[in-house]
């Protein structure tokens, strides 16, 4: 199959995504106001608590078995690698661009957490449905695509609300973070100020004269105070970030749904009762699937409506936005190709091309919409997050078809 044919196969799903996103953006305009802030809030709650969990339970129960889960063990590892590599590149960006401290978590979060949920549910099955698709026959491809997208969404939900949430929380304004913590958990979390300042000095942060003098002592006066080794600073930061991980935030409705869906799919007696046309309680599975089908278009409409905020001005450095765009659309996909190629070379992956295509695609998606949800929780950086989302998704409309085409060539 030629490059142009593959490009058309990759372009059609992205065009579908753009059209639905554009409808959401149109409905959020002040002249229309069908997806205003209040309407988005209510719709987002329905998606978060009902539609997405129903989609996960249905798809995981139908497509994941014990044998397939053993085969797909590398996918959660691959997703974790996207978070680790992305956060490392994001740390480089905030150092180079001197991003204000209260925006550093947003930049790193957008670099680490990708949209591995509804985007893959749209892109991968749509690629399978194309007449020129290089991935086996349409029925087998679509079934596997749902399994890959479901497992990807389940894994990403856990990593986003543990790993990425800890990073965004670490750099959130302390007063806002403490208020949010007290209202949600009744306790306050330890500050990361002691470990972030020596590693990531901020010229624009306002501190008292005493604390400023104390932070400069290790760098200016070795006689009065012994300088802490760099590796100890790294260990201290890792411990503080780990203390920020809140297990309560990890167990979102989607996480519970993922656990339930995996149990239904893996445990054979339960699977026989719920899954399949001859199953006695098949109506429960089909009802959950019917409800879950609304999750993808609703989430995409919300995404388009939220992008409207990105048209406004903000205080974020444009170089930081360019850096995030470069990470998500250039550097991460390149590194993803290297990771998947290395895993395939050492025999970690099987020979199925669609599986390797999805693993590469996980590095090329734009940032997760849940980063915006976190900024709403901390009441800080919402406009800046919208600008990052606007530009990354705009560039992704061009880069995703190109990378998808390249990935098809590489796995063919």
From TrEMBL:
Annotated membrane topology is: Multi-pass membrane protein
Recite the UniProt keywords alphabetically: Auxin signaling pathway, Endoplasmic reticulum, Membrane, Transmembrane, Transmembrane helix, Transport
User: Which InterPro entries would you find in this protein's record?
Assistant: Mem_transp_PIN-like, PILS1/3/4/5/7
Gene Ontology terms: cellular component? endoplasmic reticulum membrane
Segments for region (Disordered): 177-219
Q: Where in the cell is it found?
A: Endoplasmic reticulum membrane
One Pfam short name:
Mem_trans
Chief localization: endoplasmic reticulum
What is the protein's known function? Involved in cellular auxin homeostasis by regulating auxin metabolism. Regulates intracellular auxin accumulation at the endoplasmic reticulum and thus auxin availability for nuclear auxin signaling.
Q: Belongs to which family?
A: Belongs to the auxin efflux carrier (TC 2.A.69.2) family.
Name of the protein described by the UniProt record: Auxin efflux carrier
